Amino acid sequence: MAASRAPLTRDGLRVRIVVQKVRVAGTEYRVIRPAGALKNGALYKTHSHYEMYVDRTYGRRIGTLWLLAARSPRSLVYLPMRTTRVVPGIGEDGERPLDLVLVPRTAQLRPSRWKRIRAQLRTGRAARELHTAGVPARDLPDLDADYGIPDDPKAAGTFLLRKEIHAETLLLTGGAAAFREGAKEIFAVTKYGPPAAATGLYISGACNYHVCRPVYDWGLDPQNMRQWEQLHVEFCPQWAR
């Protein structure tokens, strides 16, 4: 992975991964996860939405895994983020740390099976294959393009994610377009966050003084805001050494 201060290049869309296969309830699942710990990437459930914090290096790694999910219709992409060291000033007021799993619709995963899948991944019985995965730069949408759900319901459905919480994990189910759009927002945070954080005005978690992006609502009627829970991605300067 490129150094944290380097501009985004083709090599910035490569990530070391571990691939494992496990069988649960008669179904085999292929699971992709990063080969190393996501030291500077954290995910929390707050009282009203979901907060993800990333620095540039690990944000790019996470964004690349989202792009990889878009290209892997038969694989679950597992991002262990629950045990990341606490972000300074975050996770101390009722926020609930979570792991993240990106689930292609074609996998037809029942969320209730995730806990058993994760347990098998940890036992050491599932063979581990180490790879370097590369994603073409063309897969990353324009970081400055506005996001808007198409008016046509069928077209809009390709951009939407379904969420489930199970076993301390946020499971997001969707298609390639949805995962690419999510990756775009994460990469935008890694692009614009560092120069903003270099100024004296930058305050992590302070409205109007940090760099962040929203990743979707969940396909609900926009008039029914009571059910709206946003995935919010914020740039956080490196907090783990």
* Helix/strand order: EEEEHEEEHEHEEHEE
Rg measurement, Å: 17 Å
Number of helices: 4
Strand content: 25-35%
Ranges where pLDDT stays below 50 over 5 or more residues in a row are 222-227
- The coarse overall form would be globular
Measure the end-to-end span.
Answer: 17 Å
Largest sheet: 7 strands, mixed
How many extended strands?
Answer: 12
How are the SSEs placed, and which strands pair?
Blueprint: E1 14-24, E2 27-34, E3 41-45, E4 50-54, H1 56-70, E5 75-79, E6 96-97, E7 99-104, H2 114-123, E8 129-134, H3 153-157, E9 162-166, E10 169-174, H4 176-197, E11 212-215, E12 231-235
Parallel strand pairs: 2-5, 4-12, 7-10
Antiparallel strand pairs: 1-2, 1-8, 3-4, 3-6, 5-7, 9-10, 11-12
Helix pairs in contact: 1-4
Provide structural commentary.
Helix 1 runs antiparallel to helix 4. The chain has four helices and twelve strands; from the N terminus they run E-E-E-E-H-E-E-E-H-E-H-E-E-H-E-E. The chain is 22% helix and 28% strand. A hairpin with a 2-residue loop joins strand 9 (162-166) and strand 10 (169-174). The protein is of the alpha+beta class and 241 residues long. The two termini are 17 Å apart. It has a seven-stranded mixed β-sheet, sandwiched between helices. A five-stranded mixed β-sheet has the order 6-3-4-12-11. 37% of the residues are buried. Residues 222-227 have low confidence and may be disordered. The protein has one domain (10-235).
